[in-house]
Amino acid sequence: MLEHSIYSVISPEGCAAILWKKNGNELTQEGFEKASDALKFTAQDLFEFGVIDEIISEPVGGAHRDLKETASALGKVLKKHFSELIKKPVDELVEERYGKFRAMGKTAEEEE
Description:
Elements: H1 12-20, H2 29-39, H3 43-48, H4 67-85, H5 90-103, H6 108-111
């Protein structure tokens, strides 16, 4: 995942509206920021949770500033991961993927 990208199934505004717009309360920038923090949707968050395998560095100013450099960095990471994956037997790959996806969403208490 690119280092400055985000991934979420809902926007911070949508999340805030669902969680905190009750009894006619107005939504605020503070509510949006609270929702953003709660969603944990940055590349760094998702890497820490094991959802993504690697964070890809972006050019100075962001990926959109230098598309060739971004594409090159992405290509290098994809080649690296594909070359590692192609060496593994299919049954091992399936087992690893299964374990990875089953572990998503677990809390520290559940792991004990």
